[in-house]
């Protein structure tokens, strides 16, 4: 059965379900699915559980093992993506050639857009660090350090993938007390270090509190292995925004470096002879001037 076939709803409930899955001007929060491979180690299984705890409730964890190889056959992942309505995924596997393996990827139109394979060299779980954790569905602050995220194309795409995966829902305002979770990514010496911190607001003796970071887990030491990146044309197509969301350019309005708004007004040429001025006795016309003006007006009328 083809996944691209057109399904006509028979009930109102089915119609609402299909409309919810269809494209929208303002898309929903991207959901992620965590899939375990056929030979997943205990480290990979626990890593998927910890990432699931960070990503909840916008995440689906598949507990059964799936015998598939994403870099060779992607049909099973695309099937699970359409079934669970997830555009992000992590596939965990383990073998002798590539031990403790995590594949981060994302979908476009329920087809694999790009994938990056990361090997876990060191892992510290959430349960191994005994301290307070952040509440569920806390939106994290993402910090990236390292020149590789700006120079290397693979690391630049990995940074974009991490932002897409952990960013959470779009918000219109920020509350200081709500900044509780920090995810820090560092790229150095061919490795990527991921650390998770809880933000502590402590008394400082003034209005602004003193900020401290306390590691809460999980923490990863990644090494990049294989990559499957989309072409530039396909990547550009996936980034296209609908016209309804594009900001309409306002004519004759400009801003300076300080954000001050300036407007340009177009007016017709003024006739200064008809300009109303202050009535002063010295500016009044005399009787002789009035008679001359009257005679000139009368001549013009006769000529016409």
List its salient traits.
304 residues; alpha+beta; Rossmann fold; elongated
What does this structure look like?
With 304 residues, the protein is an alpha+beta fold. It has a domain at 29-169 and 176-231: Brix domain (Rossmann fold), CATH 3.40.50.10480. Helix content is 25%, strand content 29%. The chain contains seven helices and twelve strands. It has helices at 12-21, 42-55, 75-84, 148-151, 153-166, 232-238, 287-303; strands at residues 32-37, 59-66, 88-93, 101-108, 111-124, 141-145, 181-188, 191-202, 210-215, 219-228, 253-255, 261-263. The strands form two sheets. Strands 1, 2, 3, 4, 5, 6, 7, 8, 9 and 10 form a ten-stranded mixed sheet that branches. A two-stranded antiparallel sheet has the order 11-12. The termini are far apart. The mean pLDDT is 84.
């Amino acid at each position: 059965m083809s996944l691209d076939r057109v399904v006509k709803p028979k009930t109102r409930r089915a119609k609402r379900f299909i409309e919810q899955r269809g494209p929208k001007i303002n898309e929903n929060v991207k959901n992620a699915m965590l899939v375990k491979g056929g030979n997943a180690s205990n480290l990979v299984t626990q890593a998927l559980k910890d990432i699931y705890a960070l990503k909840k409730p916008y995440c689906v964890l598949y507990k059964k093992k799936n015998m598939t190889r994403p870099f060779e056959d992607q049909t099973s992942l695309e099937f699970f993506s359409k079934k669970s309505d997830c555009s992000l995924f992590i596939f965990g596997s383990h073998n002798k050639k590539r031990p403790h393996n995590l594949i981060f990827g994302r979908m476009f139109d329920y087809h694999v857009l790009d994938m990056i394979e990361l090997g876990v060299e060191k892992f510290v779980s959430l349960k191994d660090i005994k301290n307070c954790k952040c509440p569920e569905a806390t939106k994290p602050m993402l910090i990236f350090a390292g020149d590789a995220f700006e120079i290397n194309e693979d690391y630049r795409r990995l940074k974009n993938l991490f932002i897409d995966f952990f960013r959470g829902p779009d918000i219109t305002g920020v509350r200081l007390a709500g900044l509780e979770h920090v995810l820090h990514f560092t790229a150095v010496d061919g490795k990527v270090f991921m650390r998770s911190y809880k933000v502590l607001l402590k008394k400082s003796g003034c209005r602004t509190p003193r900020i401290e970071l306390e590691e809460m887990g999980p923490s990863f030491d990644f090494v990049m292995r294989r990559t499957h990146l989309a072409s530039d044309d396909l990547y550009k197509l996936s980034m296209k925004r609908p016209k309804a969301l594009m900001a309409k350019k306002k004519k004759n309005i400009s801003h300076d470096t300080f954000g001050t708004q300036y407007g340009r007004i177009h007016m017709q040429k003024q006739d200064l002879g008809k300009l109303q001025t202050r009535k002063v006795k010295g500016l009044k016309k005399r009787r002789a001037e009035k008679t001359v003006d009257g005679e000139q007006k009368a001549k013009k009328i006769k000529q016409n």
